[in-house]
Amino acid sequence: MKPSEFDIRVWSESACGNGDCKCNGFTYGKQALATLQTIDNDNAEIELWSGYIDPNGKHVYANDILLVKEKDEEYLGIIRYENNTWGFDFGNYTDELGFVVHFCGEHFEVIGNIHENPELLESIKEAGVANEKRL
Q1: CA-based angle 82:83:85, to the nearest 5?
Q2: Global pTM?
Q3: Whole-angstrom Cα distance, residue 40 to residue 70?
Q4: Beta bridge partners of residue 68, listed in sequence order
């Protein structure tokens, strides 16, 4: 990734302080960098862009939840960036993100994130064992 392509988003419940704002706690790019200077950083999360874009044009960031389709199977997972590695967390099994995206081609989409869609986290945990057995 070139520096000009580098992108982050910052999630914080107090990201913009505007009660009428529709940002849902997220700021992106240069605004995200500025936000880090004005909020309580202990409650903020910096989420890197993975370099991937789903078929609907959404950038795939750390902590996004993806729906991946492979043949007749569907999997939910969380995008993780840990130890300088991008991963796809199926629940109790993690695979390298590039492999998952390459293997599934255009059959993946961002359907939420861990901040706004906690109900999907439970689905991932429940499906984790079943996903591991299928892989």
Answers
A1: 70
A2: 0.77
A3: 41
A4: 75, 108
